Amino acid sequence: MNDRRLLTVSELTTTIRSLLEGSFPFVSVVGEISNLHRPLSGHFYFTLKDADAQIRAVLFKTQQRYLTEPPADGRQVVCRGRISVYEARGDYQLIVDTIEPRGTGMLQQAFAELKHRLTAEGLFDAHLKRQPPSFPRHITLITSPKGAAVHDFIRIATRRFPPIRIAVYPVTVQGEQAAPSMIEALTTINTSISTDLIVLCRGGGSIEDLWAFNDEQLARAIRRSTIPVVSAVGHEIDFTIADFAADLRAPTPSGAAELLIPDGSALQKNLADLCARMQHSLRFSLNDTGQRVQLARQRLLSVPHSLDRLSLHLDYLSVRLKRSFVDTLADKQRDLDQTALHLSRLSPKHHHAIRCQQLLNLKERLVRAGKLLLQNKEIQLTKIVAVLDAVSPLATLARGYAVVRLTRGKKRLVTEANQVRIGSVVEILLHQGRLQCKVEDRYGENDEPL
């Protein structure tokens, strides 16, 4: 048997507790309350069950101030909290942070729809968020002056940084008038109150209690604010539309005070450390500078040449430097002139002038070639006209010949005597004009009558 695998009951229980708490850091469980009892400690102990299973649960006294109504047996609720193990009994149980009535489904759906619509609109975009000041001098709380949240914020804020100035703008934080009163407060503060930061502050509660912070117009008023707005509503597990619209979300009102207000004692300690580091750095710098001055003094005393000789040598070097500078400038000027000449040859203007001249020469050559071509074509045309005149029927008619054709039908040419009858009318085309004649006699090739 391997003794290294042996575990004590405490070790096993601790391991199981670590596994459960690590796997279920935060859960929301729906069930019915039963076996509710409240001992002298003030904690609520009960069983959360459904038709097939049950789990022990505890709501500690410190969390009960956020209840909207006391729990009772037989009620359907949503318990939000974490899983843990009570090692003394070996029981796992639900450590409850908040209890909400089960009838919150419609509100959750309305919340999700509004969040989705405003997100698509870009109201929650990160680039719209403003960074709250690191050292605010004045903070205005929009909250109920009677709630525990405002007192927690002020207590922690004054403890961390006593000189902080805090103003409370009283509003209603629950009910139908809560959202309009907070919108009015935001508008008034932006127009009439000089402050560095606005904090929407409210303690925890059910979704119905926090519903005023899910108002669309309140979200738009937060984004219109020219002063950074921090949302510190409910517990870390509670999310509202105001949280997404605000420039910064704090998990709780107490957490907001921790986030926004610097720790005065830590600042004093840091300042003291910086002063000590600065003094040490200055002492080190002064010592180092003194040593360097002393070394320079010793080197000056050990110079082998007099200052006069060094001065003459310096003048000589100055003359050489001046001459070298003048020669260098002359060389650079020559290089610059050559480069300018080269660039002028490569200039588009120069090339353009050359191309224009070439184009002009080509134009003249084209005109001459065109004239020559026209002359040649004219001579060719004259010859062709002469040939056409020689073979043209009109030229034949001009020599005294005539063309005879019928006057009816298709007016066919008459080439033989037997094509017409005696008494027929024919048309005779002359070189100039035409004749209509009536056939009186017909003769053959040998002048024989037909």
TrEMBL record:
Domain OB-fold nucleic acid binding positions: 7-100
GO CC annotation terms, alphabetical: cytoplasm; exodeoxyribonuclease VII complex
Keyword Cell membrane: no
GO MF annotations in UniProt: exodeoxyribonuclease VII activity; nucleic acid binding
A Pfam family recorded for this sequence: tRNA_anti_2
HAMAP family for this protein: Exonuc_7_L (MF_00378)
Role, per record: Bidirectionally degrades single-stranded DNA into large acid-insoluble oligonucleotides, which are then degraded further into small acid-soluble oligonucleotides.
PANTHER family: EXODEOXYRIBONUCLEASE 7 LARGE SUBUNIT (PTHR30008)
UniProt-recorded name of the protein: Exodeoxyribonuclease 7 large subunit
Organism the protein comes from: Desulfobulbus oligotrophicus
